[in-house]
Structure formats: C-alpha cells, structure tokens
From TrEMBL:
Residues 1-20 form the signal peptide. Keywords: Signal. The keyword Lyase does not apply. It comes from Phocaeicola salanitronis (strain DSM 18170 / JCM 13657 / CCUG 60908 / BL78). InterPro entries: DUF3298, PdaC/RsiV-like_sf. It holds the Pfam family DUF3298. This is DUF3298 domain-containing protein. Residues 190-275 form the DUF3298 domain.
Length: 283
C-alpha cells in the first residue's frame, strides 16, 4: 500500500512539473519544430503615494522561438528579424526579456513626462483626490501571438493597445508572415500577383460585405453603395493591406480602425479561403 501511494505521488509531481514549465508550447515529436515561448511583464506605476492617485498600467508579452538545437540558426534569425521589425534596430541584438524591460522603462518615462507636472500643478491649485480626471490614468498593453500558418510559414501578430489620455483608447494590429526556411518577412509583393490586385480586392469586398451584414444583422448590404451608407470606404478605395496572415485555411486581411471605416466601426479581419484566392498567389 505504501509503495502504491509513493507511485501515485510521483505521478502527481511529474504532472505538476509539466504544467509549470516556462511559457513554451510543447514540441511535436514527429517533426520537432522550434518551441514558441513567451516572456511577459505586468507593472503599475503611481504618480505619487496615496489613495486615488493616477496610475499607468503596463502589460506586455513577446513571443519568440526557442531553438531546437545548437545548430538551429534560423530560429535566432527569425527572432532578430521580428524584434527589429517591431521595435527598431536598437533592439536587434537584445533578448526578448531585455526588450520588455526597455519598453517598460520607456512607457514609464513617457507617462511621467506627460502628466506628472500637470498633476502636481492641479494639486497645488486645490484639486482634491476625488476630482482627479480619468485621463490622468494611462494604460499600455502589448500582446503577441506566434503560430504555424501555411506550410513553411510562421504567423506573427502583435496587438498594441494604449490609452494615453485622449477621447478613447486605440488598438493597432500588425501582422507578419515569416519564412521558416530563410527567416525572411514576406511582403505583399512576395505573395500576391500584382496583375490580379483587382480580383483579390473583389474577394475581399465580398467578405467585407458579409462581415458588415453580420455585424448589423440587417443582411441587406450588397454593394459599395451599401457599405458607404454605413460610413465604410467613404474616403478610400479597398486595397490589399500590408497586414495579412497566410493561415492554414486562407488569407486573413487586417484593416485597423480608421483605415477603411470610422473608429466606431472597429477593425476588420477578413478571411478569403485558399480555394478562391489560390490562383492569384505567387507559388
């Protein structure tokens, strides 16, 4: 009986150990791809001590590839390419955790330089803690996702949310498609045939109409005129955006707020199946 208890206890400890590993997704034994890992940080900074004091909330994470061996030269190259693209050449040689630390320090510095002197002046002029305007409270969120997309491609998506005292917060999504063989970022010119731009935009238009009908629940929009009556595509033509994802089932085109519609309409993520768009893609 005692031996059985020890075996069960050992099994429980092993299971627990697997669950508390650092933020890396388990490898697949069949083809052993690099692990996708994530580093993150959460910080709250107050302008001064006390209750009802304005604060800045910072929540950041960065996904990256953990090389599968010492001979894996592509994974570090991909990490470097992604970090340089999103955060600038000054971070090209930095580790993801170092990038997080530097970004956090920059956000804190920006927050204090933006509002600290104003807050102190308001307090000096008699503002009470309960009267502190909401716009004194900032928030930064940076979330990333890295996953396998179409064969031979890593999909990387960065979502940047920030509220810095304006009329409303803003969210911007940036997407990358990275070759698993070369570590190169694939651009629109690498993926889409330029001569088929009009045909690709027609496919995107069809998905946009479906999405707007779905959101409004009226199912009566069938053309550009109907979209424009909803405030969409009033100031621009539909185009192939730089933000797209070559997923496993199709190509998803991302339009951030303000790009094709007003802020109130939100962003748009429109997926065209490969069955429909394949003939317009470069091989």
């Amino acid at each position: 009986m005692e031996r059985r208890k020890l075996v069960l206890l050992s099994m429980m400890l092993c299971a627990t150990g697997c669950m508390v590993l650092p933020g890396c997704q388990p490898q697949k034994k069949a083809d052993m791809p690099p692990q996708v890992c994530t580093v993150s940080t959460d910080t709250i900074v107050y302008l001064q001590e006390g209750e009802n004091v304005p604060s800045c909330k910072i929540s950041l994470d960065i996904s990256y590839l953990q090389p599968i061996s010492e001979t894996d030269s592509i994974s570090p190259k991909i990490n470097t390419t992604v970090i340089k693209h999103f955060f600038g050449p000054q971070y090209e040689t930095a580790r993801p955790d170092e990038v997080l630390q530097a970004l956090t320090e920059n956000y804190i510095e920006n927050y204090k330089s933006d509002v600290k002197s104003l807050f102190e002046a308001d307090l000096h002029n008699g503002m009470k803690p309960d009267d502190v305007p909401a716009w004194y409270n900032y928030e930064y969120q940076l979330n990333t996702e890295m996953k396998e997309g179409r064969k031979g491609i890593w999909n990387y998506t960065l979502t940047d949310f920030r509220y810095t005292g304006g009329a409303h917060p803003n969210t911007e999504i940036t997407c990358l498609n990275v070759s698993q063989e070369t570590g190169k970022i694939l651009s629109e010119e690498d993926v889409f045939n330029v001569k088929d731009t009009a045909n690709i935009c027609k496919l995107i238009m069809n998905e946009l109409i479906k999405e707007v009908n779905k959101r409004t629940g009226i199912d009566t929009i069938t053309s550009l005129d109907g979209l424009q009556s909803m405030g969409i595509l009033l100031d621009t033509y539909l185009y192939i955006p730089a933000n797209f994802i070559l997923g496993k089932e199709g190509v998803t085109f991302y339009y951030n707020r303000y790009e094709i519609a007003p802020y109130s309409a939100g962003d748009f993520r429109l997926t065209v199946n490969y069955d429909d768009i394949q003939s317009y893609l470069k091989q």
